[in-house]
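re: ur question from yesterday

yeah so i grabbed the chain u mentioned. its 256 aa long if i counted rite. heres the sequnce exactly as i have it in my notes:
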Amino acid sequence: MAKGCIAATKYFLFLFNLIFFIFGATIMGFGLWILLDNQSLIAVLQDSSMVLKVVSYILIGVGSFSMLLGFLGCLGAIYEIRCLLGLYFTCLLLILLAQVAAAILIYFQRDLLRKEANEIVSQVVVNYPGQNKTAEQAWDYLQTTMQCCGWNGRLDWDANHMIRNSSLELYPCSCHNASLPPPNVADSGFCEASSNDWPIYETGCLENVGSWLFTNYGIILGICLGVAVIELLGMILSMGLCKSVHQEDYTKVPKY
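ran it thru and got these structure tokens back, copy pasting raw so excuse formatting
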């Protein structure tokens, strides 16, 4: 009976670590996406925000460490190595505590992060088109796909140097409302309007991005809770297997 429990725990722990390895690869992939992406809001922010770059490196590090941890957990489970199981439990506990600390930090610093994002996007809009091609391309892509204009609204573009100093009535082409004429416009740069009533989307991207996050918050929360539950299961299974292996070794010791 005891051997059956040990075998079941061992293979459950192996399966868990396989899942944990996949989660680690996903986290590392997300960090690489933040670092290398050039067609979303992330690209606009990370090009000017050292904080976001640091976050991407942290995610890559955590993902790589999680993959290594999953591999070590598989070895400890299959070969019943107590020191690996103990190390595995300790590392999982530290990761879980770090995740909780990061979540608390993000929650209490949310206003600062929102302010920093607003300042970064404002600079992109004011200087467009400038030397920062990657951020500008990403911003055009965001406005086109999210069907929005400016961060808080179209008035953000009134501060743009090109629009303010031009004798023509210019507006950003990526803000163009597809349901309004003209039917075909460029995806970037400036287009000329016939009047000061621009044929653009009136909603700011902040509102649309917030709506997207609110719509998908259940998925995001579910993924976070799923990771936490898997980590807790791994801790419980590793300690259970470690204890069982210890008891089995104790019974094998000859008594005099």
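noticed a couple things. The mean pLDDT is 77. also The first strand starts at residue 170 and ends at 172.
anyway ttyl
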